[in-house]
Amino acid sequence: MSHSLLQIGATGMQSGLKQAEKASTEIADALSNNDVSLITSSIDLLQAENQVKASAQVVKTADQLLGSIIDTMV
């Protein structure tokens, strides 16, 4: 079970990082071209940040769960 949680957390972090990279590229392009998509890209970047934070919390929780299981078995 904790292996699945680790995998879910890692996948979520990777997805969030990809989204952040895309959004930051769009922001840089918007700034250089005076484009109005700056707001949308900024929101995407904030969503990516929240996704990475939430996924990191899933990984942390899975790690704590695995530690508790190991402690119980010892």
Describe, in plain words, how this protein is organized in 3D.
Helix content is 92%, strand content 0%. The protein has helices at residues 2-33, 38-73. The longest helix is centred in the last third of the chain and has 36 residues, at 38-73. It has one domain.
The strand count comes to 0
Number of helices: 2
Largest sheet composition = none
DSSP strand content: under 5%
Entry summary:
With 74 residues, the protein is mainly α. It is 92% helix and 0% strand.
Topology:
Elements: H1 2-33, H2 38-73
Please give a handful of descriptors for the protein shown.
74 residues; mainly alpha; rod-shaped
